[in-house]
Amino acid sequence: MKARGFEVCALSSPGKLLNEFSQAEQVPVYAVKMTRRITPLRDLISLFQLWRRVQILRPQIVHTHTPKGGLLGMVAAYLARSPVRIYHIHGLPFITARGYKRIILRWCEKVSCYLAHQVFCVSYSVRDVVIKESLCPDSKVKVLVNGSICGIDATTKFNPVNVGDHIRLAMRRNYGIPNDALVIGFVGRVVRDKGLLELVQAWKTLRQEFPTLYLLVVGSFEPQDPLPPSVEKLLRTDPRVCLAGYVDETPPLYAAMDVLVLPSYREGFGLVALEASAMALPVVATNIPGCKDAVQDGVTGILVPPYDAEALARAIRKYLHSSALRRQHGMAGRKRALRDFSPEAIWEALYQEYLLLLYKKGLQPPELVKQTWQK
Q1: Do 255 and 279 contact (CB within 8 A), yes or no?
Q2: What is the pTM of this model?
Q3: Per residue in 263-275, pLDDT tens?
């Protein structure tokens, strides 16, 4: 967007990631503390701080992301009378919520959509849910190109050729995994919603059948939506379970895996599945909105019902028994990532949407700075 003449700034919660983002993208950032949970008093304080910052900056476009950032950002932008307001839906937490929490979360999404001039969804299946749940009229909600938030860099970053076999072996040595072992991988927050209960149940079965099988878990244990103590204890004490924790650079870890598993209960798109596909890994995921966009069942991976540990184990077992099937689905996934999820295509589509919204409001777009994107 900077190359197309826009002045860009970012508002988010404070911390190391925000500072790193500012340095990497060379944009000014403003820290406003926002909690992930529903915290009415803190949320009002965050809303006031966001409103004041938006009033000072006076942006032509306010583009918000995530449920909490989306709600507070849309309300702040509405109160500041920002000309163009965009809400980008990454996922729908109310899908797995119960009781009053589900009602509150659903209404939060509805308010964000109502206050936005344009709503984007990261996947077509999430768009279907948004329309079915009457959160937003279908004329107001779009998906950019084939979905995802920013595509996937399958050419350089997520390219198994660029990682190489030596990295695969080094990663395995680092976690005490034998070179000839089979490795099931999981990447994501280590919480109940990601299907870790079913993954552990499937693991208990498969570890007995395959003596050289290992489980590599990449991600942090989080206090919100925690695992049952018995499940966490197994993950921390099983000698064939390797906990990598949170890792910024995941391609070397994908290289150490033979199959990626994402048994999540809800996803916006299932980006880790696309990352794994770009790394030529087959993917076992749940047949839910978001995952079904990231994985082509029987082509790039296998989709199984959520909450079904037996079906999960059966699908993983197919790949463990057949290196040919792993290669076939892995290469099909990589071809799809290269063909359908180019970051440049999504950048261009978003740029065109910005122009359209500015024209509708009678606003002049910025002058083009450079003729081509620069990575």
Answers
A1: yes
A2: 0.92
A3: 999 999 999 999 9
